[in-house]
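User: structure tokens for this one?
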Amino acid sequence: MPQITIDYSHPVEDAFDVDGFTRALHEGVVEIAAAKPEACKTMIRYDNLSAYGYDDRADARHALVQVTIGLLPGRTEEIKARLTEATLELLRKYIAPQDGITLHASAEVRELDASYRKFDE
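Assistant:
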């Protein structure tokens, strides 16, 4: 915990400082949600097959970025909202604007289900 997933699409890959964003996000999760740095685990997934509305995918005028943060239960709604807003602000900082590209970014903080288990070997 926390379990973080960053999904992002073409054509944002060259404008997205993924390493800088991930480091800053981990720092934010530690500060806002009282997580331990070593507990922050992030899976980063690039997708070049995303679609937006009825647009032709070949036009590549839209980029999608979705960040999901899974936390163990116990954080208040205020903390989760602060973390979501901080995540969106970091995306604005670590993704450079691109002419002709509309960036669609979203973030969600959710509680891990009671069935959540893990192991480290």
